[in-house]
Amino acid sequence: MKAPIHKNVESPVRSVTVHELREHHFDPNWHFHPHYQLFTVLEGTGKRLIGDSIQTFEPGDTVFLGPDIPHLWRSDPAYFGGNSDLFTHGVVLYFQEDFLGKDFFEKPEMLHLKQLLIDSKRGVEYKGALRDHIREELLELRNAEGFHGILRLLTLLDKLAHGDAGSPIASYGYVNTYKVSETERMQKVHNYVLQHFAQEIRLGDVASLAGMSEAAFCRYFKARSNKTFIDFVNEIRVGHACKLLLEDQWTIAQIAYDSGFDSLSNFNRNFKRYIGHTPREYKGNYD
Best label site of 64, 185, 220, 262, fewest CB within 10 Å? Predict the structure, then answer.
């Protein structure tokens, strides 16, 4: 079955939709939609792709996304292995900008909320006490009905608009340039890299998967992702290495090869380039 990059999450009976997600893994399809989305992870680990950002995620990961920014929470491979003890759990809320009328957020009193919506077009990640508050509110909003639910959502958005615990996710000026017609091609590329990053990835193999020459694929990928294909692969590998470093079960050399790097020096060089610290420094910061 083809996985559409444009996802329909509209509720036929509610202007604000809240879903509790309980599955063996999160939706593995990279997608976007015209809704604002507030999402928190309660259970599960893996890779999070939002716009041109690649990060690992774990329980507590909480973000606010604006419309049409491509995103994916790709669960770790173990969640696809049929292990009945592993599952993912999250709560997601959707709404469109006009859910209270076309000009509601244009009113002078809505200035801070309007700025929040603008900021969300790059995606916003929340930490600390505000993140915990969002999680508690999303759990309450699962069962909130009618006016009470709308009022509770607006109160939460107002708190986000006046808080300072949010950090932008995608790079400044990021714009979604993907088209619905490109769904299958980019889905194949993302799936291939996420499944094979620990092995050697040949550019020719991926270009062939996309039905392009190597040169054409490199131009296409950079124009759509705001980064080179090699940067995309290395960011996924470095993100995987960060997770292993914090688990503190393997040597740095073992982590380098498990993450797909062909030498320790190459691993150290790329790790410092993307993270700003050496692997040893990064690990020491969390000890």
Answer: 262
